[in-house]
User: Fold this.
Amino acid sequence: MKENVPTSASIDAEEIKSASTLLKAGQLVAFPTETVYGLGCDAANAEALARLYRVKGRPGDHPVIVHLASIDQVKDWALEVPDEALALAEKFWPGPMTLILKKSHKVLPSVSGGQDTVGLRIPSHPVALALLREFASGVAAPSANRHGKISPTNADHVKSELGDLVAKVLDGGQCAVGIESTIVDLSGESARILRPGMITMQEIEDVLKNLPGKKNASASEEQAVAPRAPGTLSSHYAPSTDLKLFSHQNLPRAIATAENLMMKVAVMAFSDPIKCTAIVTWSQLSEDPAQCARQLYATMRELDTSGADYIIAEAPPDLPEWMGILDRLRRAANG
Ligand code: TXA
Ligand code: MG
Assistant:
């Protein structure tokens, strides 16, 4: 965890109480999670959900994740809790994983996006957990950014983007994970990864394969882009400046091309800086995937304001621990 993330001892109990009271009153509260900041509302309040969709500018048929404080609450929101769900929950919750399960009758259509499933997650950030415990019910929360934009990883990102539109922004410092949760769909015949994240497909499979006679994780690269999670739409996670993604090998050529075209570029790369007049700024990405994920969105935001004609990003290695980051860079490049 980063040093500026509050410990449970340093959390202001009055702040948490007031945030929970606002949620009970149907207001919107932005709060930190270990992945990215969420824009929360009472998941059982249709009016609050309508407000949330309006503020976020999100199409009404996109489902939102319901955040919970404990595994006991899962049965209130899911029709059934398969053994696979329990095993994954015990291993990875609280933490950066979302489970898609068949929804219970309690789940409003605006939470499920009209589908028969619900996304559930217990986040590990101490402020999120304190809020969820105090609220004692499900908090629906998409990432606290405008639809299609970059997810916020600190409170300033949220304030600059949503400012007065939310009743409160809880400041929990810098998000320790930095990209959104791994989404595992357990509502069908076999487990599927709908969105890769910092918990890898291999880690999910390792848990599922130990369950005798159960459905295996047949999550494949192909299924990882299954269209059921609108987070897979190309417009997601994108800076306003065009972002182009290049392999390590093609990076020098991409920069030379920019120079030939007399374009100004901002670069985010693992490689050492290349000297070239086309480059207005060079952001060094960490070769450690966890560290890289933590920096990723803040770096994109920074480069978005650099005045460059476009952003050149170097792709990470095609390895399991980099899948979440590669996925977000690909989506940013498609935006
Ligand atoms: O790390 C995270 O997951 C963050 C933090 C705030 O928890 N939340 C987040 O929410 O990324 P959002 O709404 O920006 O992305 C959630 C993704 C969307 O792509 C949505 O379509 C998918 O989860 N999702 C939610 N419920 C679903 C369901 N029932 N079936 C399929 N996909 C679902
Ligand atoms: Mg989002």
